[in-house]
Amino acid sequence: MPKVSVVLPVFNAAPYLNQCIDSILNQTLQNIELVIVDDGSTDESVDIARSYLEKDRRVRLLQNKKNMGLINILNRAPEICQSKYIARMDADDWSVPERLLLQCDYLDANSEIDVVGSWIKLFGGRNEVWHYRAQNDFIKALLLFKNNGMPNNSIVVRRELLEQFKYDSSYIHVEDAEFWTRVMIERPDVRFANLPKVLTHYRIHNTQVSEKHRDVQQFQYKRIVRRLVEFVAGSVTEDEWLCHWSLIEDTGQELAAIARWVNKLITAYQGKFGYGEYAIEEKWLNICIKRNRLADVRCLVNMPERFFFIKEREVIINE
User: What residues make up the domain containing 208?
Assistant: First the structure.
């Protein structure tokens, strides 16, 4: 039985596929299986995948007769994978050699964690590192703000979670955000983590879903976020909703009104999920900085001293 199964959906990814597959087969953790699912490619993707079947018994190739979409493949993961851990991989990205070993070791050592991600490094159109937060409480609270808190192309998930929950096909292009939000609502004890190390390199190019479907994504994100906000805080007025969205994309609401909403949200969130690792407070700080209203940070919202201690340490570390 392989330690971890890597699900690799492929659709017309020929220019990038060799680098992606090689990065998985050259992992330091060798007890793996790579399940390539071709989703009706019309380029040379299938030929490239088949060439690996002849060289490595850990590779399996499944072919959809027609394009079924990413959500279909993700929902089939538990039935097509053999392992207790299932890793996500995108066909245009690549993973560092120690990725799967570090993530599987982490899940072995932390039985309470259901999903583990990592930092990712962007390449191609941009060159930067995204430093995802490590703490479960912060990751969960970020879902309130249009942020998964985990890079979906670099996660390893316990099999049972993917057996219990399925991706919703009505949320195409934002399926991950809807999935994790629903998991959080229906199973509040779910626990997330990120390893503070770059384990996956994320290719940026203008054919990605996030570039081609921005308007649809924005509409769907608002549906997802509002559902979680109402789960946390109960029914919200339209003014409260606009105040909340100002913490994501400043809509120009009065700062005093946003502060009242932030105080309400912090109290409600703690009642539902407990300590949020100051994710909500950080959003409040950011909008005060953006509006040059730092003097209002403490006087309008009850900000714990420990929050400022943490932020000062982050500045020192980042410098």
Answer: 4-212
